[in-house]
Amino acid sequence: MLDVMSTKNVIAGNVIAENIIAPMSEAAIQTVRDLESVALQLPQQPIETSHLFHAGLYARSIVLPAGVVLTGALIKVATILIISGDVIMYVDGEARELHGYHVFAASAQRKQAFLALADTSMTMLFPSQAKTVEAAEEEFTGEADLLFSRGACGSNIITVTGE
After folding, report:
1. Using CA atoms, how far apart are residues 143 and 120, in angstroms rounded to an integer?
2. Total-model pTM
């Protein structure tokens, strides 16, 4: 039985609170854009993206190698974000070091940055009726052209179950 007295009520505001990532401020998004402009001038690390379409959900997973910085696209839909590993995550003016396994309710209007301290797996998923990777990417971001899955140094594994 659930002990209601020991359950925490969490109000996220503009920072990570427990397992919630709230929308980011325009200033924080600009900070990530500034980092991105510098990072794009550096040699790019190939990253493989695994895409899964199943049961009305779209999931995309990557492994971010240790020492690699990744700036994400601006996310325009609410998602679940799962992180397993050791990483520093920047979200809305706060850099937070994460170790182990974390599942976040992640709001729309966020553009995050990550620095992997060790190889780190990340999966983002959301409900979607998209039938192709391109359609799903356009659904979750207006910056699909920046995604590794569309770039020359990215590769893709696509699984569609039909369920």
Report:
1. 23
2. 0.86
CATH T-level fold of 15-160: Jelly Rolls (2.60.120)
Give the residue extent of every domain in the chain: 15-160
Residues 59 and 52 sit within 8 Å (Cβ to Cβ)? yes
pLDDT per residue as tens, the chain (163 positions): 333 333 343 334 444 457 899 999 999 999 999 999 999 888 888 999 999 999 999 999 999 999 999 999 999 999 999 999 999 999 888 899 999 999 999 999 999 999 999 999 999 999 999 999 999 999 999 999 888 899 877 899 999 998 8
